[in-house]
Amino acid sequence: MLHIDRRKEILNTIMSKGSVKVASLSEKYGVGEATIRRDLKYLAEEYGITLSYGGAFRKEKINYQTTSEMDIYKKRTQNIEEKRFIAQKAAKLIKNGDTIALNSGSTVELMLDYLENIKDINLITLSLSAALKASTISGITVYMPGGKLRSFSGAFYGKKANEFLKSFNIDKAFIGVMAVSIDKGITHGAFEEIEINQTIHEISRKRYLMADYSKFDKVSLTKMIDLNVFDGFVLDDKVPEIYREYCKSNGIEMI
Questions:
Q1: Beta strand pairing status for 222-225 and 121-125?
Q2: Which distant-in-sequence residues (6+ apart) come within 8 Å of 99 by Cβ?
Q3: Between residues 154 and 166, the one the model is more confident about
Q4: Mean pLDDT over all residues of the chain?
């Protein structure tokens, strides 16, 4: 393993577990303890971890909060300024000729308010309300999966919807989420929506996480996607610093 990859793994371990021991890392990676100490010294200088006798640790302790799903109507009233800020930045990533995917959620839906000048894109979305809104914008061709509509979130899901999605090649996927944490990744409160969101991730060339500050350091019912699969995080200015460090260490663009 290259030292760059080893240091990346060590940093992610510190972020998720809180601390590491030199001896354990030496055994795990099959390198001398002196090499591990150099790795930790580098990470301390670049990412602000704290060195200790025999290891290193993260300065702040993350206390994750459990969160439950909120219906789509309530979501539209929460942190609206931050969501619009994120949506406007995400919309700038879309170019004419793109095929894009939106899952369901209030933040991704707001992107459509900033696409008035688009002349030619294909939009695949799980969201009924996003599809209706996009259908009024000239230059957007809308595709929707069939399947079952979950009224609580306004999203389609199920076997037929999954099969429909897999027939597309997506340039850019914009994924709104309800809970983000370093060690659990993206978690979601509705088990039935997990598979179809994973399918969007699998068929997309580039994947962008869209989440305001209130979604971070939260966990929900079940795992959806790992954090390190994203090409970019579209964030507001209030997101905890540790997630910005995570982006830097994993080569994820901060937008």
A1: unpaired
A2: 121, 122, 123, 124, 168, 169, 170, 171, 172
A3: 166
A4: 88
List the strands of the sheet with 99-102, edge to edge: 140-143, 121-125, 99-102, 170-176, 204-210, 232-234, 253-254
Helical packing angle, 241-250 and 3-17, nearest 10°: 160
pLDDT recorded at residue 64: 61
Q: Across residues 242-254, what is the average pLDDT?
A: 87
Asked if 41 and 34 touch (Cβ cutoff 8 Å), the reply is no
In whole angstroms, give the CA distance from residue 87 to residue 131: 16
State whether residue 249 is helix, strand or coil: helix
d(Cα 136, Cα 125) in Å, to the nearest integer?
Answer: 15
Task: For residue 157, give the nearest of 210, 104, 112 by alpha carbon.
Answer: 104
Helix (H) or strand (E) holding 86, with range, is helix 80-91
CB 98 within 8 A of CB 172: yes
Q: Which of 194, 158, 231, 183 is nearest to 69 (CA)?
A: 194
How far lies 240's CA from each of 23, 96, 108, 169, in Å? 30, 33, 21, 33
The string of pLDDT tens digits covering residues 53-97 is: 888 887 665 556 666 565 665 666 678 899 999 999 999 999 999
Whole-angstrom distance, CA of residue 196 vs CA of residue 101: 12
- Please give the torsion angle defined by the CA atoms of residues 236, 239, 242 and 243, in that order, rounded to the nearest 10 degrees: -50
Query: What does the alpha-carbon distance between residue 203 and residue 128 come to, in Å, rounded to a whole number?
Result: 21
User: pLDDT band for position 191 (50/70/90)?
Assistant: confident
Cβ atoms 149, 160 nearer than 8 A: no
